[in-house]
Amino acid sequence: MNTFHDLGLNEDLLKAITDMGFEKPSEVQDKAIPILLKEDTDLVALAQTGTGKTAAFGFPMLQKIDINSRTTQGLILSPTRELCLQITNELKLYGKYCKGLNVAAIYGGASITDQAREVKRGAQVIVATPGRMKDMISRKLVDISKIEYSVLDEADEMLNMGFKEDITEILSHTPEDKNTWLFSATMPKEVARIAKKFMHAPQEITVGHKNEGSKNVSHEYFLVNSRDRYQALKRLADANPDIFSVIFCRTKRDTQKVAENLIEDGYSAGALHGDLSQNQRDIVMKQFRTKQIQMLVATDVAARGIDVDDITHVINYQLPDEIETYTHRSGRTGRAGKTGVSMVIVSKSEVRKIKSIERIIKKQFEKKEIPSGMEICEVQLMSLANKIHSTEINHEIDPYLESINQLFETSTKDELIKKFFSVEFTRFFNYYQKAKDLNASAVNSSSRDSDKKSSSNAARYFINVGEKDGYDWMKLKDFLKDNLGLGRDDVFKVDVKESFSFFNTEKEHQERVLAFFSDFKENGRFINVEITENRVGRGGGRGRRRDGRKGEGDRKRRSSGGRNDRRRNNDENTPSSRSRRSNSGSGSTVASRPRRSRRRD
Ligand code: ADP
Ligand code: MG
User: Fold this and answer.
1) Axis-axis angle for helices 473-484, 541-561 (nearest 10)
2) Which one of 157, 178, 206 terminates a domain?
3) Would residue 428 count as lying in a domain?
4) What three-state secondary structure class fits 434?
5) CB 442: neighbour CB atoms within 10 A?
6) First-to-last CA distance in the chain?
7) Whose atoms come closest to the Cα of 59: which ligand?
8) What is the CATH number of the domain that holds 544?
């Protein structure tokens, strides 16, 4: 592997690199920097987030521009204000020994005149978001007609965010013969199209596979019913007491709602999305960086600026619309050599998307179970035990020890430990003891209920028509109930195979069914129905859907009548009765967690 010196960087830059503590180039830097320094070429560079792309274009740009001139020579376009500021700060660090270097940041939500002044001071490099840049061009506050190097950073994100027209407009004000360097984590078709449109025979470098996720990230998914999504999220948080995570939602509204619910339920959470003011977003980000907030609930767009290195978990509360976006989300963790986990909460209807994501990231997901209440109790208990074990004694308690000792004079150590831990454990235990299983399985509990019913009360039939005769479960069901004169719910568990099918009716209809089909012809062909032992319709997802609905109805009826069930619902659905978790971060044991005073409340 090369050193920065080998790459051909000048002394001023090398000194700054030493100051920053970079020891050796990252892969994308190793590949891009020599090319960009030696050649006047266009470049497409694909590399994951957190791989050091800023320096990969930043160093060559600073080395190639003429610092003695006050003409704007480099233009970097980036999708968000946060990234824009981040890049600007990095460039200033890289260029701290480049005397006379001016880097101006141009972005929305701040004074345009101040920014124009920055540019006027002789900014050789401008880092900009597309919207504000376009604005400043039209007001003639910048001149980019002599640009030599333009960078499209996070090109995929800029396109996702609908900046294509702005970019086109901006680049039309730059010289034809400039070099364009495009950096992107993923390569959807849109980016390829942009590359083709604006670039001349670009060289291409790829770090890892195209669109591939970070090697340090493992991917897990959890199958739940849609209505249990939020409960599942809380379980995942509770099962990871030291979680420091970004939770992704699809819309601003969901983002706000999930964050509010978490806060109300006592978690240290915050929301980050575009409907917040810049000031609010800055505050939340600061709290997250300083770990005052453990769970940051964010939209994809807002999360682009997050450059926090030790995120332990990315949780996909909902999958993104564009599956390429998943790469960006999971790239928020597993940064800077650390490992991370990207979790996805999916409902049955979305589970096939997991396969598509696996193809894109070229990694397998592991299907995991949402932990049970008792598993969480155990995790929390052991986490507390470990924290106590490693806690440094605070001698401020010394004056009180005598009275405390008196109180426990007759207790053994064993007893004391049990009591001490019970204080914490009981809190979680009370909350979780009646918690239901949140995992939606292929055959879920509700259909298992109806299986019981079917084994006692239902008859299962084999029928010699199937898909090849043009039936799906709905058509076959209609055909059966119409011909047999049965009601909508009297035919169930319809499971259509290629050349035959199965279905159920209540036993009371059995005679009628068999009699009807004893001599029934359709299109000249006998349709044959027999009683079968195959009671549980396996496969045939559609058949199950119907069963699921029925089962759910059953459960609702039962639970509205049953005391226990009602309590269980309350326990999981109205956790707001739990006290707030302190954000002070002081004793970061579970004691700071929310459940403390269910009883007090
Ligand atoms: P990307 O744009 O690919 O997401 P960044 O350029 O933001 O990545 O870099 C991610 C982090 O890694 C930054 O904090 C940056 O300072 C740091 N970094 C970049 N290059 C190196 C290097 N060669 N050695 C150590 N740290 C680096
Ligand atoms: Mg970057």
Assistant:
1) 70
2) 206
3) yes
4) coil
5) 12
6) 61
7) 1
8) 3.30.70.330
Q: Tell whether 343 and 379 lie within a shared domain.
A: no
Paired with 345 in beta bridges are: 222
What is the number of the ligand closest to the CA of 94?
Answer: 1
Cβ of 548 closer than 6 Å to ligand 1, yes or no, is no
- Site to probe by mutation for ligand 1, drawn from 2, 7, 26, 84 as the one with most ligand atoms within 8 Å of Cβ, is 26
**Together in a domain, 151 and 31:** yes
Residue 471 belongs to a domain: yes
Q: Which residue, by CA, sits nearest to atom 20 of ligand 1?
A: 52
- Are 237 and 201 members of one domain? no
* pLDDT attached to residue 288: 94
By CB neighbour count within 10 A (0-12 exposed, 13-18 middle, 19+ buried), where does 461 fall?
buried
Distance 22 CA to ligand 1 centre (A): 9
Whole-number Cα distances in Å, 519 to 301, 329, 478, 525: 64, 61, 19, 10
- Three-state secondary-structure class, residue 368: strand
Q: What is the CATH number of the domain that holds 114?
A: 3.40.50.300
Residues 225 and 323 in one domain: yes
Residues 242 and 292 both lie in one domain: yes
Contact between 575 and 597 under an 8 Å Cβ cutoff? The reply is: no
Verify whether ligand 1 is closer than 6 Å to residue 25 (CB atom). yes
Q: Distance between CA 281 and CA 284 in Å, rounded?
A: 5
**Looking at residue 483, what is its pLDDT?**
87
Question: If you measure from the C-alpha of residue 490 to the centroid of ligand 1, how many angstroms do you get, rounded to a whole number?
Answer: 64
**pLDDT, position 570:** 34
Q: Dig out the tokens for 594 from the structure.
A: 């929310």
- Which residue type occupies 458? A
Q: Identify whether 34 is part of a domain.
A: yes
For 126, the domain range is 4-206
**pLDDT tens digit sequence for 238-291:** 999 889 999 999 999 999 999 999 999 889 999 999 999 889 998 999 999 999
Answer yes or no: do 336 and 407 share one domain: no
Q: What is the pLDDT of residue 305?
A: 63
327 lines ligand 1 (CB under 6 A): no
Within this chain, do residues 103 and 178 fall inside the same structural domain, yes or no? yes
Q: Select from 320, 349, 372 the last residue of a domain.
A: 372
Q: How many domains does the chain have?
A: 4
The alpha carbon of 90 and the centre of ligand 1 are apart by a number of angstroms equal to 9
Per-residue model confidence (pLDDT) at position 560: 32
Take residue 379 and report the two structure tokens written for it: 């995790």
Strand pairing category for 491-496 and 313-316:
unpaired
Tell me, yes or no, whether 356 lies in a domain.
Answer: yes
pLDDT tens-digit series, residues 1-25: 689 999 999 999 999 999 999 989 9
Q: What is the pLDDT of residue 500?
A: 84
SS3 at position 54? helix
| Pair 461, 513 in one domain | yes
pLDDT at 521: 85
Residue nearest to atom 12 of ligand 1 (CA): 52
Pocket test for ligand 1, best of 22, 90, 335 (most atoms within 8 A of CB): 22
Tokens of 46: 């694909």
Q: Looking at the CA of 58, which ligand is closest?
A: 1
Residues lower than pLDDT 70 in the chain: 1, 208-215, 305, 336-337, 442-456, 533-601
